[in-house]
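Summary for the steering committee. The consortium agreed at its last meeting that each partner would contribute one worked example illustrating the joint modelling workflow. Our contribution is presented below. We chose a case with several input lines so that the handling of multiple components could be demonstrated. No manual editing was applied between input and output; the record is shown as generated.
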Amino acid sequence: MTELKLEKCKIAVDAMGGDYAPKHEILGAIAAMKENKNFDLILVGDKEKILKVARQEKIELDENVIYHASQVIEMGDKPIDSIKSKPDSSLVVGAKLVRDKKAHAFVSAGNTGAVAAVSTLIIGRIKNVERPTIGSFIPSETNDTYLFDVGAFVDVKPQHLLEYAILASIFVKELHGIKSPSVALLNVGEEEEKGNKQVKETAELLRKSDLNFIGNIEGRDILKGKSNIVICDGFVGNIILKFGESVPSFMKYLLKQHAEKNIFEKIKIGLFKNTLKKALSPLNPDLYGGVPLLGVNGISIIGHGSSSPLAIKNMILRAKEMYDKNLIKKFEEALKTYAIKK
Amino acid sequence: MTELKLEKCKIAVDAMGGDYAPKHEILGAIAAMKENKNFDLILVGDKEKILKVARQEKIELDENVIYHASQVIEMGDKPIDSIKSKPDSSLVVGAKLVRDKKAHAFVSAGNTGAVAAVSTLIIGRIKNVERPTIGSFIPSETNDTYLFDVGAFVDVKPQHLLEYAILASIFVKELHGIKSPSVALLNVGEEEEKGNKQVKETAELLRKSDLNFIGNIEGRDILKGKSNIVICDGFVGNIILKFGESVPSFMKYLLKQHAEKNIFEKIKIGLFKNTLKKALSPLNPDLYGGVPLLGVNGISIIGHGSSSPLAIKNMILRAKEMYDKNLIKKFEEALKTYAIKK
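What follows is the complete predicted structure of the assembly.
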């Protein structure tokens, strides 16, 4: 990847990925270009649809940035099959642009599982990575907590969890400027003897590594920000992440229920609404620019299906940052050292 | 157990279990007796300490309700070892009272793992139960959601998860008056092909059972109350439960952070504090009277270490309800039918 640094960074955006595609994708991409002119945009998707929506939304869009792809992968499509059955889908075409070095990064708000699987298969893995991983920023009291893995693969081995920790450590170090990010293992107790076979074996590997492993933490420690990186398998991580995302709407429900009990309380809640919204704004996932897929041989960022233009913009800027910091090269180097050790 | 119904229900309370023992235990027990006179209390623990605290708190306590036990199991003690090393601990003595039919129920705010392990070993399991389970009430939009298992055992088999679902279905049916409680499997997606090996095999077993199995649900569906019973292994359940319990303090943190930004916002938050507290009161775990340990051959309820007197009171009343509804007998019957089928 390094030789590509001589050229301008090229970021391919899956224009057909999200629930509001291509509108949010176009708006987000335009916003990203306004904030950072130092990259070339490639909007991958149905040219006619993209241009139509741009006209409707009165967005000035240079049609040369569009890379036509006629098909769209739907929620019901089986990810891996779609490589063969929908070779001209925006997802497959976008991933191929990265594979063929025509783009340095790929950003998609499509089905997470599909983007992860297709990116892994088409772009390929970095040497010494067996399982790529998706990590998510988690709002916490320290504001620098990431949960890895949140759903790339279930049924993983301790060795894979170690790989996640290595990739995540570099990601957090480079993108958050934390010299030696702390790594903790999510468990049912802090003591070494707690937990299932998988975490016990993983703890062994982490202790032997040169990562800043601080031991086990519990579910209640995540939001406290006790560790920069929280390691768990994709099954646990995905459930925690989705549970966490459902909390604000449950709070809203509880406030609504309470408001119905008493007109004075209703008025108070009405008056307080805006303050509460502002106070809880750190919970807005759109701020964090999607979740990075680490371990594939190119930059890949995956967004929520419901990504707003703000989310798309932040995903693109995050991809640009990963490019600028030369992360893929750094992953490769770290895993090389690690491979010699094992 | 049924023949015991001729006598008055006897509930043994571990007076030395919680972080504020024996004070909260005494206060909670007295409050329970005020609310329901129809049971006999047995306070298990250090007689002198209990009487001393009762005097300090100016509580009138009949010393005949105290069943002396000289030892206390601490957080650092290994649960199973303590049966031998601390045979006269309040936990071991309390469990033995149930085993020996001198009490119908045992209530403890001691270390969850210790109470579960010691109860299981001493009281024994109901026939056809391989793994007892701890379930927790989860506040949700429907207000009748339970998560099973939340930490009794990690490394479980699909067969155990089926047992949890059978026990939980009877518990929720009898205690919440829901005729056919819905059972869902916690997973990373709703589709049948989603998830790890364990959930796929468990789904198979649940589909074949005569439980009201509604399929997979995701992390975001728990607080929505999409299912009365949410089944997962103790590893996942424990992490979700503790994560959920940490949410209110994180909200408080976010409000405090926001208040510091601006004096007007600070005043607004101050004025709204009480309303918010009331609106979020359904999140108070003390309301739900601990978590039942199901599958042991007697009633066993486990509370938070930090249980308030209100929590202890509700745990005792919940134990009384389980006795009145003859739950152990009903578990036995259900598992008999089920055992013939398999």
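DSSP finds twelve helices and eleven strands in chain A. Residues 1-129+287-325 of chain A form a domain with the Isopropylmalate Dehydrogenase fold (CATH 3.40.718.10).
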